[in-house]
Design goal:
This protein has a 5-stranded mixed sheet with strand order 1-3-2-4-5, with helices on both faces. It is built from 11 helices and 5 strands. It has 310 residues and is of the alpha/beta class. Strand 4 (278-283) and strand 5 form a beta hairpin. 59% of the residues lie in helices and 9% in strands. The protein starts with a helix and ends with a helix. The protein has helices at residues 2-32, 35-42, 47-64, 73-92, 103-121, 127-151, 157-178, 214-219, 234-249, 265-271, 297-308; strands spanning 207-209, 224-230, 255-260, 278-283, 286-292. The protein folds into 2 domains: 2-178, no CATH class; 207-308, 3-Layer(aba) Sandwich (Glutaredoxin).
Length: 310
């Protein structure tokens, strides 16, 4: 009951924040396609900034509610590093000549986009890396909290929108860095001493595979196999029993397999399962579709049925 309540709170928080960030995307789209208005209001127009800020907010929304914006993770793995390098080059070259720009702004935004990439990739959970990123987001958020306070002296909806978006993003990123399971999103990954879901026991209709037998359970099978990759996260603990219920209901229509991310690195590498939970459809030894992030019973069942009906 307690785990379900936490998962529900995380789900609704993610939905609310995702809606706010989608509103921010619309805000920056307006700024991007209104150069005349921006020049009259601010005295300058910076289309690059408007574009990349919109991308960041879209990435935040896709991370919090991946079912709304099913963008392949590979897209974000490429886009965010490109944006980070873009700002680094800008800060070292022509950005210094822009009268309305400050060089450290470009460096700060390069770090912002790098932090967005880290949210998706999470290459390591070493405490020094977590501490460095948390310190950055704390500084970033503090700066924009200061900017928001200044905005009250000369109210402007453009300034409030811009500084508010930065402040909110910094706060959410800080939470995702320090407490990755507080909000359900793509980057669900943290190490625990005692797994929240069993590493070896499944149900009558769910096979638990590991590196020693995933080839036989997944790759060499004909027909359709539905795989749930689970790990030591709260959403995984909530999703496993839902997966088993659906496996029981659909027994005979497909094979249902669960792989534990923390103990099956080779299987997860073959599946390209860098985050969890994730549900995959494997047909004749190939991954043909995937549902990243937390999925409730209805969403999971609809996703599986869609592929079994083909």
């Amino acid at each position: 009951m307690y785990a379900e309540l936490l998962a529900l709170m995380g789900q609704w928080s993610s939905v609310a924040l995702s809606l706010v960030f989608l509103g921010g995307v619309c805000f920056y789209l307006f700024r991007l396609f209104s150069p005349g208005y921006m020049r009259r209001a601010n005295g300058y127009y910076d289309g690059e900034n408007e574009f990349w800020h919109g991308i960041c907010l879209l990435g935040m929304s896709a991370c919090l509610t991946p079912s709304w914006l099913p963008v392949p993770q590979l897209v974000w793995f490429v886009v965010f590093p490109v944006g980070s390098v873009w700002y680094l080059v800008r800060g070292l070259t022509y950005g210094k000549r822009l009268t309305y720009n400050k060089q450290w702004y470009d460096f700060a935004h390069a770090a912002m986009l790098f932090g967005m990439w880290w949210m998706y990739a999470q290459p390591t959970q070493h405490w020094l890396a977590v501490l460095a990123l948390a310190a950055y987001w704390l500084w970033f958020g503090s700066y924009y909290a200061y900017r928001l306070r200044l905005d009250f002296s000369k109210p402007s909806w453009l300034a409030f929108g811009q500084d508010g978006a930065h402040f909110l993003m910094a706060g959410v990123m800080f939470i995702m860095t320090v407490w990755p399971s507080a909000l359900h999103h793509h980057g669900q990954h943290h190490t625990v001493t005692e797994p929240l879901v069993s590493l070896t026991s499944g149900s009558k209709h769910v096979i638990v595979a590991s590196d020693s037998d995933f080839q036989a359970a997944l790759v060499d099978q004909k027909g359709t196999t539905i795989v749930l990759v689970s790990g030591g996260c709260q959403n995984c603990a909530t999703e496993v029993p839902l997966f088993e219920e659906i496996a029981t209901k659909m027994a005979g229509k497909a094979r249902f397999v669960r792989v534990h991310k923390d103990t099956s690195p080779a299987a997860c590498k073959w599946l390209v399962a860098t985050q969890c939970p994730v549900i995959m459809i494997v047909t004749d030894g190939k991954v043909v579709s995937r549902l990243d992030g937390f999925a409730d019973h209805e969403e999971m069942e609809q996703f599986i049925n869609k592929h079994l009906d083909r």
